[in-house]
């Protein structure tokens, strides 16, 4: 699976996903650290990547548009990096299963 981690989440999440066997980059890794949501959306669509974001704007856009990249909308409160990565370790199998079922907007709490 290919993931693009948005700016509100740490680059360490992309590194963790990569270590777990996925293609993953943080927006800062691909020159999109200060990019608009539209630019990130277009990049992810062209790259075939799933956007992982805490930004509700991505979820709203996905709900209104039939196309575009899959979105994983992370709704956990701000937390330490270690706790976030532990949470992702627990949730990743469910996220992957939802993506494999063809779900394109996955809200994780």
Mean pLDDT: 95
Q: What is the helix fraction of residues, given as a range?
A: 40-55%
* Uncertain parts: none
The count of strands amounts to 5
Query: How many domains?
Result: 1
Distance between the termini: 21 Å
The Rg value, from CA coordinates, equals 13 Å
Labels describing this entry:
109 residues; alpha/beta; 5-stranded parallel sheet; 4 helices
What does this molecule look like?
There is one protein chain. The longest helix is centred in the last third of the chain and has 20 residues, at 81-100. The protein has a five-stranded parallel beta sheet with strand order 2-1-3-4-5, sandwiched between helices. With 109 residues, it is of the alpha/beta class. It contains four helices and five strands. It is globular and about 35 Å long. The protein is 45% helix and 18% strand. It has one domain.
Topology:
Layout lengths: L1 E4 L5 H9 L3 E4 L10 H11 L2 E4 L2 H9 L6 E4 L6 H20 L4 E4 L1
Parallel strand pairs: 1-2, 1-3, 3-4, 4-5
Task: Tell me briefly what this model is.
The protein has about 110 residues and is an alpha/beta fold. Helix content is about 45%, strand content about 20%.
């Amino acid at each position: 699976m290919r993931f693009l981690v948005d700016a509100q989440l740490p680059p360490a999440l992309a590194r963790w996903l990569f270590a777990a066997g996925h293609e993953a980059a943080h927006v800062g890794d691909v020159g999109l650290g200060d990019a608009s949501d539209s630019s990130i959306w277009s990049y992810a669509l062209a790259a075939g990547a799933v956007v992982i974001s805490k930004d509700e704007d991505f979820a709203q856009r996905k709900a209104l548009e039939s196309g575009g990249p899959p979105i994983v909308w992370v709704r956990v409160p701000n937390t330490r990096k270690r706790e976030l990565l532990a949470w992702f370790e627990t949730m990743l199998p469910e996220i992957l299963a939802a993506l494999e079922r063809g779900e394109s907007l996955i809200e994780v709490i």
